[in-house]
């Protein structure tokens, strides 16, 4: 999965981000300029409140370790389902609905991420982080105990509420300590006094290593568990790790308590109507696409839910543009021509990347008959490319001070990688080596592009809108991930049904199609000739979806053309 695990730029455009799902609190100022848990007096920062937190590297361990556990969990959870979802669907006989395992999680994560920024100001960073870890732990436990696909999807959606907070609150705390902007800010002066340059970069390096380790662990571990003791342990194993994080945060993480004053006024700042309308808007879109692909596009439920998507989309836009006091997506940010190109790149890039990852996994298992653990190992190439791209993009920008051509080249690489995978999965020939090369190149581009578009946003938004512009970019990324996976899965199911119907004959064809779409295990029970037909139908379906992936990558390239280059300030020699 793509991330921003590289060191970005120092000085005015420095970022503490380290993972794909992080969010900066959506206030008028950046997290670096917000008081930690309400410690602000007459517009001046309470230096003593955080002085203890800004020390050389060894003394930072009590802060870093509790949050590093959460980073590892979030990174691992992002890839652990990719290699095991086909095994999950086959066992529960709901293979056609497995996309909801991921989209259900991302739906709630997308909607709750922006809320945590405001809620942490009200209830405190530590309390919100403990809440997020607790909900995630319970969600993972419920996933492991799920008796059917409906219960599993609901449990994943519940876990997403915690997942959104795990990434967001950690990002906010790190922004409190390691600022997004250091020039002339309170944290910049504190960092100069209390944190050496080496300690600062060591912190980022530790978090980068933790995130990379979690991402690399997820896919092969999920596949191994699915092939050995069962897929349920891919979720159950995360619950005790989350409990360890809860204990570490409870006893080791020392942060100031939130002030209880003006509680009602602060609560009114949270855009609950916007969050609620966003959840319904995205849910109706996903449900309509899923129902249309699995049942019928003319079915009343499909038509009704797609109409609901349009209605709540309009309501969400009205709330954000006209009524919300502190909206997720303010008008001045959304309609800014210098920013919208980066948002669209984020949307199309993540739609392409996640759909590619999931459906390459399906190709490996349904067409090439690889086990879940083998599929997980092949997907490691994507993670290697993503992390290398993120690091490389940051280093190139550090050296050149430019981001336009780096971004354009990044998404051309994504387009090349997705196109190569499409051609090498049966259109020209079957070559897993070429597919692995496509995964590396495509993920290299996406990982680099996510880093460079973040800098493009920061450079074009200006200091006053830096945080909120970044937060909107995370919203577009999450929506791109959800929509890309949902549309890709719909195309797979629609094409699979029509291909099977055109290639198979017999009185029981409807029952056979239903059972083939429910479980890959059933395919192994068919006679050899029918197996070949079914696997060829899966290949056709994957080709259509990979074509969609390439189209999304091409849309990202076109969007990247319109990004506005802006010179980046030189790095300060002091840091």
UniProtKB/TrEMBL annotation:
Major localization class: membrane
Spans traversing the lipid bilayer: 63-88, 100-116, 128-149, 155-178, 233-252, 272-289, 301-319, 340-364, 376-396, 403-428, 434-459, 541-564
Keywords: Membrane, Transmembrane, Transmembrane helix
Cell compartment(s), UniProt: Membrane
Residue span of region Disordered: 1-51
Domain of life assignment: Eukaryota
Domain Major facilitator superfamily (MFS) profile: 63-568
Basic and acidic residues bias: start-end ranges: 36-48
Protein's membrane topology: Multi-pass membrane protein
Family annotation (InterPro entries): MFS, MFS_dom, MFS_trans_sf
Listed Pfam families: MFS_1
Bias kind Polar residues: ranges: 7-29
Name listed for the protein in its UniProt record: Major facilitator superfamily (MFS) profile domain-containing protein
Organism: Hohenbuehelia grisea
């Amino acid at each position: 999965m793509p991330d921003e695990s590289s060191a970005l730029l120092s000085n005015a455009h420095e970022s503490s981000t380290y993972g794909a799902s992080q969010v900066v609190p959506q206030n008028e100022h950046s997290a670096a300029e917000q008081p930690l848990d309400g410690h602000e007096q007459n517009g001046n920062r309470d230096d003593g409140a955080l002085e203890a937190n800004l020390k050389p590297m060894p003394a930072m361990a009590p802060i870093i370790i509790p949050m590093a556990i959460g980073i590892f969990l979030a990174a691992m959870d992002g890839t652990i389902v990719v290699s095991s979802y086909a095994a999950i669907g086959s066992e529960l006989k709901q293979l056609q609905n497995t996309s909801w395992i991921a989209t259900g999680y991302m739906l709630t994560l997308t909607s709750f991420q922006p809320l945590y920024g405001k809620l942490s100001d009200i209830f405190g960073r530590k309390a919100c982080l403990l809440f997020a870890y607790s909900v995630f732990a319970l969600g993972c436990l419920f996933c492991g105990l799920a008796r059917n696909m409906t219960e599993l999807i609901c449990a994943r959606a519940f876990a997403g509420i915690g997942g959104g907070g795990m990434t967001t609150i950690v990002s906010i705390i790190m922004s409190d300590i390691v600022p997004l902007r250091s020039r002339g800010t309170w944290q910049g002066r504190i960092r100069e006094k209390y944190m050496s340059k080496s300690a600062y970069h060591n912190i980022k390096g530790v978090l980068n290593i933790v995130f990379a380790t979690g991402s690399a662990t997820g896919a092969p571990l999920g596949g191994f568990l699915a092939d050995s003791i069962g897929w349920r342990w891919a979720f159950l194993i995360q619950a005790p790790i989350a409990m360890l994080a809860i204990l570490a945060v409870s006893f080791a993480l020392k942060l100031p308590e939130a002030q209880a004053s003006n509680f009602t006024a602060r609560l009114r700042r949270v855009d609950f109507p916007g969050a609620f309308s966003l959840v319904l808007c995205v849910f109706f879109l996903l449900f309509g696409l899923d129902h249309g692909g699995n049942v019928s596009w003319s079915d009343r439920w499909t038509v009704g839910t797609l109409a609901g998507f349009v209605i709540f989309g309009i309501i969400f836009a009205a709330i954000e543009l006209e009524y919300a006091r502190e909206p997720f997506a303010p008008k001045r940010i959304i309609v800014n021509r210098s920013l919208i190109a980066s948002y669209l790149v984020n949307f199309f890039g993540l739609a392409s990347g996640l759909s590619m990852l999931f459906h390459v996994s399906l190709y490996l298992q349904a067409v090439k008959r690889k086990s879940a653990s083998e599929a997980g190992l092949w997907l490691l190439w994507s993670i290697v490319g993503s992390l290398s791209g993120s690091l490389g993009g940051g280093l190139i920008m550090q050296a050149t001070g430019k981001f336009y051509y780096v971004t354009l080249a990044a998404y051309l690489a994504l387009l090349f990688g997705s196109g190569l995978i499409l051609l090498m999965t049966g259109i020209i020939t079957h070559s897993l080596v070429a597919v692995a090369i496509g995964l590396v190149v495509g993920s290299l581009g996406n990982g680099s592009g996510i880093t460079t578009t973040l800098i493009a946003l920061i450079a074009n938004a200006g200091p006053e809108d830096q945080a909120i512009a970044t937060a909107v970019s995370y919203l577009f990324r999450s929506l791109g991930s959800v929509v890309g996976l949902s549309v890709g899965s719909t195309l797979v199911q629609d094409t699979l049904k029509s291909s099977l119907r055109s290639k198979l004959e017999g009185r029981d064809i409807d029952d056979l199609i239903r059972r083939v779409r429910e479980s890959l295990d059933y395919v192994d029970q068919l006679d050899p000739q029918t197996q070949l037909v079914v696997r060829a139908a899966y290949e056709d379906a994957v080709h259509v979806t990979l074509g969609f992936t390439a189209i999304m990558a091409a849309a990202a390239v076109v969007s990247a053309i319109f990004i506005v280059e802006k010179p980046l300030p030189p790095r300060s020699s002091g840091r």
